[in-house]
Amino acid sequence: MHKLLCIVGPTGTGKTALAIKLTGQEPSILISADSRQVYRGMNIVTGKDHPPGTIIYGLDLVDPDESCSVAVWYDAVMPHFNQAWQENKQVIVVGGTGLYVKAITHGIETIGIPVNQQLRDKLLPLSITELQKKLNQLDPSKFANMNNSDQNNPRRLTRAIEVTIFRTSHPERAITSRTDLIDSKLIGLRYYDNSNYGSKIHERVLTRLSLGAIAETKKLMNFASPQALSAIGYRSICAYLHQIISYDQMIEQWIHDEFSYVKRQLTWFRNIKSIKWYDVNKGGYDYPKN
Questions:
Q1: Which end of the chain is more exposed for a tag (fewer CB within 10 A), N or C?
Q2: CA dist 1 to 4, 88, 113, 178, Å?
């Protein structure tokens, strides 16, 4: 069985520090699961401040003017997984992007299935009822297993049709579960008392501003894609540089966006019942190997 440890949780909880510490307990490699740190040159705002000499895979995968997705990340990091497992090393995945973690622990059925623009153009004029009927004809079980929101979302229905047609014509791409191949453990770090967390997030934002976050953003605005600049922190700084908001409003918005992201992260990870949670406020915790 391949050994996998995932350290997850919201931003600013010390996940990377714990991961680095645990690499000293047994031969391991580190993989970042952070969708904001995949871009080269986007270092200060995203908090890419890892200790010198620490090798973390999954960082700096694309330029800021390129698009990125979970499939791009997955294809980039899987060779490192396979190499580590061949050498009987543990892989430690650390980060707060739940979709990236899910791609490794459980697999994502649509990962790597390309966009079929010709099909999408053909489906675009169809009503929701017509899309529902088409998907139900192609794959009744898929349609039945979609929640009510997705069943009435034309984008979700279109993607489901696209995936179904692709998989029918490529049976070799059938999805297999990863759970029988990987001995995975998931631990989470979070603050159960937010009184200290608020000041920590505030301090992180001010520190990144002092390190040159505005200058970094100003440079990126010349060529980075809207997708890259929509990341937390950058969008607030862009609004400030465009004189839409004041400096103080920029800080307030950045902090607010961080907390909104924390809520989304916790909502995602709360659905993974196998995560063992640790309270950062208590301090002194140490995750046992076994």
A1: C
A2: 9, 10, 27, 11
